[in-house]
Amino acid sequence: MNPLKVLQLGTSGPLYGAERWILALSRHLDPALIESHIAVIVDEPDKPVPLLDEAARLGMRCHSIAAPGRFNPQAISALRQLIRDEGIHVIHSHGYKADIITLLAVRVTDARTVATPHGWSRDAGWTLRFYEWLDRQSFSFFDAVAPLSPELTRGLKQSKTVAAKLQLIANGVDLSEIEQAGPAPAELVALRKNGPVIGYVGQLNARKDLSTLLRAFSQWGRVDASLVLVGDGDESASLKALARSLGIESQTHFCGFRSDRLEWMRGFDAFVLPSREEGIPVA
What we know:
The structure is a single chain. By secondary structure, the chain is an alpha/beta fold. The chain folds into 2 domains: 4-176, Glycogen Phosphorylase B (Rossmann fold); 181-271, Rossmann fold (3-Layer(aba) Sandwich). The chain is 38% helix and 18% strand. It has helices spanning 17-28, 50-57, 74-86, 96-105, 126-138, 150-156, 160-163, 175-179, 186-192, 210-220, 236-245, 261-267; strands at residues 4-11, 34-42, 61-66, 90-93, 112-115, 144-145, 197-201, 226-230, 252-256, 270-271. The strands form 2 sheets. Strands 3-2-1-4-5-6 form a 6-stranded parallel sheet, sandwiched between helices. Strands 9-8-7-10 form a 4-stranded parallel sheet, with helices on both faces. The longest helix is centred in the N-terminal third of the chain and has 13 residues, at 74-86. The radius of gyration is 21 Å and the shape is globular.
C-alpha cells in the first residue's frame, strides 16, 4: 500500500511553538503510512525560513512557496501546482494565511483539508482581528478541524457548522528533542554559582505577561538570584525598561532567540510560564 501524502503548510516566521509542533508531528508520523511534506508560504523572499531550514536538516521533504506581501494570489496557484506535482492527498494547514490559501488552492483538486488552530492573538489591531475572524469562518469549509486544547475546542463548538468537524487532539511534547539536549551553557553555569536562576523560554509579547514575572522577581528580595529570559518579541524594549525601573536590571538577563533553548532550560533552578493565554504551551 502506498503511503498517504500529507502536506503540512505553514507561514514564514521564527521557530516558535507552532513551527516546532509541525516538525514534531512530521517526525513522529509513521513513514510507512504517511509521506510527510512541509511547505512554507514565504512572504519575504530575502529572509531565512527557519521552519524549512530545520525540516531540511531533519531530512524532510521541503517546499518553498514564494508569495511576497501579506496576501499574494500567486501562492494559491503555486500551492495548487504543488498538490498536483507531488500527488498530495491531505493538506494540514496552520495559521490564518495558510488556512485561507489552502481552501482557495484545493478547488479543482482531490486533496482533503485539515486545519489546526494554534490560538488567537490578544490585544491585536483591527487588521489582524479581521484576518483571525475570517480564519474562524473558514473552518466551516474544511474537511476536519483539529484544535490542540479543550479551550480552543469549546470556542469553536459555538459554530454548528464547525462543531461537527472538530476532533480534539491533545497537545504533546516531543521528548526525543529534550533527550538530545546537551549540557547547560557555560554562561548559565556561571550565573548559578552566584545563586538561584529563574528562567523563562518563549516569545516576549503581551500574551506572555512577562511584566508580572519581572515585578514578582523584584519583590522576592534575593540579590544573589538571576532572572533569565530566552526569546524575543515586540515587548523586548519595554521589558528591559521595566527591569531598569524596578532596580533589577543587573539581575535580569535578556538572551534573545536561542537555538539551544533546551540547554538553557536544563540549567534553570525553576522555570516560570506567566502566560494569561496559551495555544500550545510546550515549554
